[in-house]
């Protein structure tokens, strides 16, 4: 009873990304201009993104071709493997069949290069010289640094100060790839200086780092901004995961009853699930889809579905999403990639439509799940991915109770080789659970803008 | 001009390991009993290893079947990819063609699981309950811990104290897999206590850690010892790398003129090169083979080819190998996996026969090479693997000078995601080169035993 690998032939690798906007029963609400409150036009976004990405952001075409150059680079690690976790199934003594798509095989160790490569490519061909971005735990920053190295683009990364200090190895990886990494809040931007003037000891947040990166990007014509999640074009680029998974499930002669992904901004979740959700929306094949978030940042389960800013300084457009408010500071859980006050608008819209479900899990349950996964399947998951593992184990145990042999598929979005401090803390018993009370959430939501 | 991947179909995965002993023009010298100085019989090794591994240690059969269970587990990450490094070629502006076999795709991030899985399997079927081993940098320890988790074996690891303190994350990975990790020298063994009595502040060495592990293993019938390099059966298990590479080079329509591997105990080097060396020894196909070692531990280039102990306390058999003496303490370079006073007897024998070449490189050159590799090929190499990258770049630049389009193949034995401190030190300019003078080497060699 060993793990089985399903590896797609390279010539069956997807040539197009899948755009879920084409199959939505009602369109997602448009992004609004932060100044006027009016729907954004492409020109409004031009200071931030190359036109090809802006067009993808608003496209309703079902299939968008993956440029040949991007496909070539993808092929260094794609198609990524799909595994049947028979050793985990055995340990759980479940009649469920558990499959996982493994994105940790990329050079950066996560799914993030799927969009980093695409974004670097479109920027390169439109003449961008420098990309500015933010990063929390560092998975996105290291992926964009990697992509920048391949395309000869300068990369500048505003890294949340607490992570900058606590995760020097993530920073080191970005610097190995040649990126410049700045602790945020910094004195390099007006909004960074304003925050430091008021809070000299600020350890930063993703919302602040986004403000700094956006401010830098709009200042120079040769500089653009890049975002690693939330936006529609990011979700689009990640769908290569789910498209491969559909073909691999076919190889296995199976189809998921349940699909599970962890959600911070939503990109790895969207990447795996959107192609399956497309089939569901088109009425071809039903599936239950579960978004898993940390109880310490309960955007989908306790947030409000409304217009909000993506950043602290309110420089970004207003997008309609599940949000805890742009001033919300999630507690310091180790799954840094899931600590964001908002959510991708497409994921939020699908939750609002009832197409997907959402569940919040506690930190200790996720690490316990990760440890069991490592000891059975051998792969050490990233703390973010542990959320998907935990929900998958819940589902597998439900199947055991109900005596059902359902098929569960989840996204193992990255490996945990950079996150061993978190596992050390867990094994030493110093990790804690954290959950916000309804009162605390209500207080955070009180600061939401009254737009839209 | 992007990296090209050659991925072998799973049904073409090797079903047998290749044993170079079958093709040697003269046999390697036998191991000797440390007490009597007489050649060892299988019974002498029985307290340390299961009989199946002892038989592999002395076998001269050319092909040894890989057990089905081991093949199944290999298939989780094997066949590993072979890449053509076209982006690196372009950066070097070389007419050479550079290929690399990438072993960092295993769950532990290096080639070590190839033998860890096999050793755990044979121990399991012969009734072993507990495996004891040593580890330096931690690649081997984490691989055996992973294998132990899959087979339900207890694993106890004596980790060189300086690494235990400096590399807590490597230790954490072993503990995640359920292993018990002990800082060596420890008070748990007689030889550990003896060393601590004399040198209370000893930071340990691989030689000491081996002594402790061997001492523990022989004390209990249900406990065996496991070694991650040096021995013939370890080299054997690693040949799956080279066998796959032969098939993959065929897919690429190419054959190496030069093969490069880094050498500590010799196992990743042997794994890639032995199947090619077999063809060379049988007169089928010529190839130049280069073993690359650190100037800070110049076993092959400055050591003596003679009988020596594998450990400090002289508990192991005497093996004929290139050695700097079992009391030699290599300087603290970051490539911990290459810091061993001796060398696998088969690798030493092949150097003595003139079948392979050896070269020593300095630490700064290896990290400079690793950085260039990461920025072109995207994969961050382990510090050990950087030695192979450095020698490959030397060869590629020689080809450029000579205007020759040679084909170079090297083994990228592991990823460097656990080794970012080393890269940080390199980029901060605090890393140093280190080379032993002939006088220092002569002094170390003066302590060699007068046997054999």
UniProtKB/TrEMBL annotation, chains A, B:
Record EC number: 4.2.1.20
Residues annotated as domain Tryptophan synthase beta chain-like PALP: 76-414
GO molecular function: L-serine hydro-lyase (adding indole, L-tryptophan-forming) activity; pyridoxal phosphate binding; tryptophan synthase activity
Record pathway: Amino-acid biosynthesis; L-tryptophan biosynthesis; L-tryptophan from chorismate: step 5/5
Keywords from the UniProt entry: Amino-acid biosynthesis, Aromatic amino acid biosynthesis, Lyase, Pyridoxal phosphate, Tryptophan biosynthesis
Root EC class: lyase
Pfam family, one: PALP
Signal peptide boundaries: none
N6-(pyridoxal phosphate)lysine, modified sites: 112
Catalytic activity: (1S,2R)-1-C-(indol-3-yl)glycerol 3-phosphate + L-serine = D-glyceraldehyde 3-phosphate + L-tryptophan + H2O
Matching InterPro entries: Trp_synth_b-like, Trp_synth_b_CS, Trp_synth_beta, Trp_synth_beta/beta-like, TrpB-like_PALP, TrpB-like_PALP_sf
Cofactor: pyridoxal 5'-phosphate
GO cellular component terms listed in the entry, alphabetical order: cytoplasm
CDD domains per the UniProt record, alphabetical: Trp-synth_B (cd06446)
Role description: The beta subunit is responsible for the synthesis of L-tryptophan from indole and L-serine.
Protein family according to the UniProt entry: Belongs to the TrpB family.
PANTHER family: TRYPTOPHAN SYNTHASE, TRYPTOPHAN SYNTHASE-RELATED
Name used for this protein in its record: Tryptophan synthase beta chain
Species the sequence originates in: Oscillochloris trichoides DG-6
Upper lineage: Bacteria, Bacillati, Chloroflexota, Chloroflexia, Chloroflexales
Originating gene: trpB
């Amino acid at each position: 009873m060993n793990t089985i690998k399903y590896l797609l032939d390279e010539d069956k690798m997807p040539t197009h990304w899948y755009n879920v906007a084409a199959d939505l029963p009602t369109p997602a609400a448009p992004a609004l201009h932060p100044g006027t409150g009016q729907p954004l036009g492409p020109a409004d976004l031009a200071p931030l993104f190359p036109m090809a990405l802006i067009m993808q952001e608003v496209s309703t075409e079902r299939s968008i071709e993956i440029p040949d150059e991007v496909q070539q680079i993808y092929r260094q690690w794609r198609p990524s493997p799909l595994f049947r976790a028979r050793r985990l199934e055995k340990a759980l003594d479940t009649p469920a069949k558990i499959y996982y798509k493994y994105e940790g095989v990329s050079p950066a160790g996560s799914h993030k290069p799927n969009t980093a490569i695409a974004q670097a490519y479109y920027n390169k061909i439109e003449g961008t010289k420098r990309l500015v971005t933010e990063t929390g735990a560092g998975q996105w920053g290291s992926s964009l640094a990697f992509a920048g190295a391949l395309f000869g683009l300068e990369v500048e990364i505003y890294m949340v100060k607490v992570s900058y200090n606590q995760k020097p190895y993530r920073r080191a990886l970005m610097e190995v790839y040649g990126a410049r990494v700045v602790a945020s809040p910094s004195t390099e931007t007006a909004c960074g200086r304003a925050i430091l003037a008021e809070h000299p000891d600020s350890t930063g947040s993703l919302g602040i780092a986004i403000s700094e990166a956006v401010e830098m990007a709009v200042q120079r014509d040769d500089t653009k901004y890049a975002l690693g999640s939330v936006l529609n074009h990011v979700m689009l680029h990640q769908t290569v995961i789910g498209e491969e998974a559909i073909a691999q499930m076919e190889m296995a002669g199976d189809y998921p009853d349940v699909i599970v992904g962890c959600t911070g901004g939503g990109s790895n979740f969207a990447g795996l699930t959107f192609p399956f959700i497309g089939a569901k929306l088109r009425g071809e094949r039903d599936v239950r889809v579960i978004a898993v978030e940390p109880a310490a940042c309960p955007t989908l389960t306790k947030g409000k579905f409304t217009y909000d800013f993506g950043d602290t300084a309110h420089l970004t457009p207003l997008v309609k999403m599940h949000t805890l408010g742009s001033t919300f500071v999630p507690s310091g859980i180790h799954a840094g990639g899931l600590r964001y006050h908002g959510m991708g608008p497409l994921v939020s819209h699908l939750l609002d439509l009832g197409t997907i479900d959402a569940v919040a899990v506690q930190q200790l349950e996720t690490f316990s799940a990760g440890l069991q996964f490592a000891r059975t399947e051998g792969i050490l998951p990233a703390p973010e991915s542990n959320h998907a593992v935990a929900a998958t184990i819940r589902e597998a145990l439900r199947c055991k109770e109900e005596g059902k042999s359902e098929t569960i598929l989840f996204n193992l979005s990255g490996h945990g080789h950079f996150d061993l401090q978190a596992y050390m803390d867990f094994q030493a018993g110093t990790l804690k659970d954290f959950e916000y009370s309804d009162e605390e959430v209500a207080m955070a939501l009180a600061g939401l803008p009254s737009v839209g």
